[in-house]
Design a protein that fits this description.
The protein has helices at about 5, 10-20, 60-80, 85-100, 100-115, 115-120, 125-135, 140, 175-190, 205-215, 230-235, 250-265, 285-295, 300, 315-330, 350-365, 400, 415-425, 440-450, 480-485, and strands at about 30, 35, 40-45, 50-60, 145-150, 155-160, 165-170, 190-195, 220-225, 245, 265-270, 275-280, 305-310, 370, 390, 410-415, 435, 455, 475, 490-495. It is of the alpha/beta class. It is globular, with a radius of gyration of 24 Å. Bound molecules: nicotinamide-adenine-dinucleotide. Nicotinamide-adenine-dinucleotide (NAD) binds near residues 178, 247, 252 and 403.
């Protein structure tokens, strides 16, 4: 069946799904625990599967940003003074409250950005897991941290304070996860926040705020403004903001870094990626095929850390091309509300145009499209792109260097393993990566030579207990783990005499 035939009649189902949701056309921000009604320019929420508008939110102006930051500042002192164990208990309660909202949250996510329900139905569980992992790190705040003082009777107690009011700015590809990854450590640390979701995905995040309210997190600790880049810019530069945590594209990350540099404002940046999977000669290609979509094309290729460059040595090159082509060709493309769909639409019309532009560039550069490569719109209205596998890609090709952020994978031949490592390290990014090989010790040695923030052996997934962050153009700082919590704390070293000693 063709994609167009599969999708005919999809509009009615999508309209009915939208009509079942509590948040569609919203005319407020969430400030100080209240839905503050406003008359502002409105921003449309578009269903990427149909191209139809189903929701709207207001675009915050500087006065709204100011009100949200003020509410956070007002709430900060009491929340910062709340015992860490009580904050951790609130995170645990919030995790349960998020799980109770899983269905509506996941469906809203799918209608916002086209993420197939097979993925978005896990968004609440994933958020709950992140909240629980950070709650479990509360010892880090409670355990006295006493350091020796060289050569004497002194010691230093390292105390930690919440960094203050944090601006949390998120992209559209994982609108829940990429907020919670910031919100959970900020709340545990005792910070108050203002969240600014991406304009295509401003509604699903409201379920997080509802869950926080149900969990008893005080009004004003979490505030929400919706809007565009100008709203984000006003938030980044607001004098009442103490720290910025941003996930998004590298060009916007650079602008935020420049603003924060000028203001001497701490900033965490999780940016773009162009990660590689190195296939060693002894790789188990059946295992690789089973995890290929998750590791290399997750969320219709709109995931920052996926390994969209597959690098293979001559022994296995043809087998790898055949396996990747067969795996991608067999993955169903279609309605993201269908639980069997693997590839949905991309999130926005401009993203579709950008991905199609990359496919055209690949064809112009002489890469061989072994699957897809079709740049005609497969469906009227929806933002679908035919999944595409390019073989015989050279490291200097634009499709081997630029983040495509769509269902496009590139396969690059390497002379040998050393050449494969050099190709993997030959981009300006450094976020994820995978080494496929049966000999895990040999794969580990190769992994250690990849210049990247995270790398998996025979699979890739981030671990909420371990730092996740990018090197080079992929970002600054890390999220997750104790290191991710530290990003929301400022230390104070108190030098004193050791017990029984003299200062
Ligand atoms: P984007 O950079 O266009 O926008 C991200 C957010 O920043 C949005 O909320 C946007 O409104 C806001 N924004 C835009 N201009 C701003 C400005 N001048 N000041 C402050 N805020 C501003 O990114 P996107 O298109 O929404 O998301 C896709 C990108 O995100 C990809 O490059 C992807 O790799 C990256 N990403 C990175 C990670 C990671 O962890 N490294 C994770 C997911 C996505």
């Amino acid at each position: 069946m063709t994609l167009a035939a599969t999708l005919s009649g999809l509009r009615d189902a999508h309209r009915a799904a939208a009509a079942s949701l509590p948040y569609t056309r919203v005319e407020s921000f969430r400030i100080g625990g209240e839905d503050v009604a406003v008359r502002r320019r409105s921003s449309a929420v578009i269903d990427p599967a149909t191209g139809e508008q189903w929701g709207a939110v207001p675009v915050a102006e500087p006065a709204d940003v100011d009100a949200a930051v003020s509410a956070a500042r007002t709430a900060l002192a009491d929340w910062a003074a709340t015992a860490p164990a009580a904050r951790a208990a609130a995170l645990q309660r919030m995790a349960e409250a998020v799980e109770r909202r899983a269905d509506a949250l996941g469906l809203t996510n799918t209608l916002e950005n086209g993420t197939p329900v097979s993925e978005s139905s896990g968004a609440a569980a994933n958020a709950a897991s992140i909240l629980r992992v950070f709650a479990s790190l509360v010892d880090h705040l409670e355990r006295p941290d006493v350091r020796p003082f060289p050569g004497g009777d002194r010691e230093t107690l390292v105390a930690r304070d919440p960094i203050g009011v944090c601006a949390l700015i998120a992209p559209w590809n994982f609108p829940i996860n990429l907020v919670v990854i910031k919100l959970a450590p900020a709340l545990l640390a005792g910070c108050a926040v203002v969240i600014k979701p991406a304009s295509p995905t401003p509604l699903s995040v409201r379920f997080l705020l509802d869950a926080a309210t149900e969990a008893g997190i005080p009004a004003g600790v979490i505030n929400l403004v919706t809007g565009d880049g100008a709203t984000g810019d006003a938030l980044v530069r607001h004098p009442g903001v103490d720290k910025v945590a941003f996930t998004g594209s590298t060009p916007v990350g650079r602008r935020i870094a420049a603003a924060c540099g000028e203001l001497l404002r701490p900033v965490t940046l999780e940016l773009g990626g162009k990660s590689s999977a190195i296939v060693l000669p002894d790789a188990d290609l059946d295992l690789m095929s089973a995890g290929l979509i998750r590791s290399c094309l997750r969320n219709t290729g709109q995931t920052c850390y996926i390994s969209t460059r597959i690098i293979a040595t001559p022994e296995r090159y043809d087998d790898v091309v055949d396996m990747v082509a067969a795996t991608v060709a067999a993955a169903p493309v279609g309605d993201p509300l269908d639980p069997t769909t693997v590839f949905g639409p991309v999130a926005t019309a401009s993203q579709r145009d950008s991905v199609v532009g990359h496919i055209r560039a690949g064809l112009r550069e002489g890469a061989r499209a072994v699957v897809g490569g079709d740049v005609a719109a497969p469906v009227d209205g929806g933002f679908f792109v035919a999944p595409t596998v390019f073989a015989d890609v050279r490291p200097h090709h634009a499709i081997a260097q630029e983040e495509i952020f769509g269902p496009v994978i590139t396969i690059l031949p390497a002379r040998d393993v050393d050449d494969a490592i050099a190709i993997a390290n030959g981009t300006r990014f450094g976020l994820g990566g995978i080494v496929f090989g049966r000999d895990e010790d040999a794969a580990f040695e190769v992994a250690r030579r990849i210049d990247t923030g995270s790398v998996g052996i025979n699979f890739f997934a981030s671990n909420h207990y371990a730092p996740f962050g990018g090197r080079h153009d992929s970002g600054l700082g890390v999220e997750y783990g104790i290191e991710g919590l530290e990003a929301y704390l400022v230390p104070q070293s108190i030098h004193r005499a050791r017990p029984g000693g003299r200062p």
